[in-house]
Amino acid sequence: MSLMGTAVSGMLGDTSWLSNISQNVANANTTGYKNAETEFATVVDQVGAASSAGGGVTATLRSLNSLQGSVVGTSTTTDLAIKGDGYFVVSDASGALYLTRNGSFVPDADGNLVNSAGYYLMGYNVQSGAASGTTNSLAGMVKVNTITSGEAATPTTTGTLAVNLPSTAAVDTGTLPATNTAASTYTEETSLVVYDNLGAAHTLNVYFTKTGSSAAGYTWQADIFDAADASATTGGFPYSAELATQTLNFNTSGVLTSGSPVTFTVPNGQSMSLNLGQTTQLASSFAVNASTANGNAPSSLTGVTISSDGTLDFEYSNGVSSPGYEIPLATVASEDNLTAVNGNAYQANQNSGTVRVGVAGTGGLGTIASSSLEDSTVDLATELTDMIQAQSAYQANSKVFQTGANLLDILNNLKA
Fold first, then answer.
1. Residue 56: which region, alpha, beta or left (left: phi > 0; alpha: psi -120 to 50)?
2. What is the DSSP string of 354-409?
3. pLDDT in tens, the chain (416 residues)
């Protein structure tokens, strides 16, 4: 009897509904979980133009993957939440790639970031240069790793030294520092710290000596020495060798017109260009207004920071930070049609559309929040209400089935 078949389809549909409710309730506390809805559709057996016989109902599952869960703060820097559209790209132990919103990442024994479902966070390694990923492929990504051997020593290649040389200083008629003898004299002196190829610091002694004054302008001589090469007796001249000497020319307004930059080689280091362009000669005392140089000594890793665009920076004990990875976001045209896999992850398919990869915060993609997690979108009150409705519907369909069975019994007894 079609009566009983229709009732059975109703019970199967309600069973599917209850199963979905059970799945939602079970994942009410799963990070990044998106609740799913059960949708029913009528099945009709066509008999004629003016009549039909009921065929029952079908139940299908609709995932609400595009819903935004609440973002809550945590105390773990590598906990990540997405505000807006997008998914983290993750891989399993075999290297297969998936998408997920579960950002509960922590370093494993090897330093790779892995979430609570065992999926590894993927990104682009930018420690040696910019990333070269593509927008329509997940290729080129590697596991994001938070372990690195201390900051590599960076040799000095550029620097800036801006001083004011007093215009009231007398012209030095003695032995200039460039002669590098014990008798050398100078007008002013300052120092600058630079780094060699191994990250060792070197103090450079910079001497300024006024060598000329005329109606056309003024001249000074800049001489640079490595402090480590100073005479052990005098702590200064003579040095083992001079690194550089340069003539500085100023106009009558005290503006430097030539002599910058000074180029020389840092001891055991690289060629360095020292910018003196902001040096002045004015009627005030000697003053150092700027003294900077790039490069740094080796230092230990203290942690990582992750910005809203997905850039993971390594932080070092000397205050230096350097980019380590770019964590991209991926999305598809139809998120609700993604194929779900174990561990609250997804795969793209023909119905969802191809994966598009981009930088967080651009092209319609959401931003990444560090020290945060996205809550499940399950509303327990709604699920429990739906459960009562599903149970009632199942009981009603079972009554219909029982009625059909009673009618069959009556028909069978007519033969007797």
1. left
2. --EEE-TTSTT--EEEETEEEPP---HHHHHHHHHHHHHHHHHHHHHHHHHHHHHH
3. 477 778 888 888 888 899 999 999 999 999 999 999 988 888 876 655 555 566 788 888 888 999 999 999 999 999 999 999 999 999 999 999 999 999 999 999 999 999 999 999 999 999 877 777 778 788 889 999 998 766 678 899 999 999 999 999 999 999 999 999 999 999 999 999 999 999 999 999 999 999 999 999 999 999 999 999 999 888 899 999 999 999 999 999 999 999 999 999 999 999 999 999 999 999 999 999 999 999 988 888 888 999 999 999 998 887 888 899 999 999 999 999 999 999 999 999 999 999 999 999 999 999 999 999 999 999 999 999 999 998 998 898 888 888 878 888 788 888 65
Q: 158-293 is classed in which CATH architecture? A: Sandwich (2.60)
d(CA 285, CA 279): 13
- Give the residue extent of every domain in the chain: 2-64+377-415, 74-147+301-368, 158-293
